[in-house]
Amino acid sequence: MNRQRRRQRERENGKIPVLIAGEGIAAASLGQDYEARPAAQLPAKRPGKHRWIATGAWILSDLAVTNARDPDLPKFLDNENLMTLSIGCWDCEQPLGVIEPNSFCPATGEE
Fold first, then answer.
1. How far is CA 68 from CA 13, 38, 104, in A?
2. Which stretches of the chain drop beneath a pLDDT of 50?
3. In this structure, are residues 16 and 53 in contact, taking their beta carbons and an 8 Å threshold?
4. Which terminus of the chain is more solvent-facing, meaning fewer CB atoms within 10 Å of its CB: N or C?
5. What global pTM score does this model have?
């Protein structure tokens, strides 16, 4: 089973609290994995083409963490608290800089 299908199955089976980061930009479940909400689907894998993604990390206040499990409260992650943003290929799992835009992706997309 490929990674995308495995993560989709985990989302379908898991009932965990979600942190909403603006309008469908990013979300998180406390102490677990981060996913977008609504979850965007990767485009179909094309041989030799990278599928680029970005991941980010934010600094959270105690209040933001305390409110994270309350589904009635909005959770916003802003630029002032953005700690890191990383860009890489979903399939070959290499970061931008090690691989370059328009370079060949050796992954099949079925990993």
1. 20, 17, 40
2. 15-36
3. no
4. N
5. 0.57
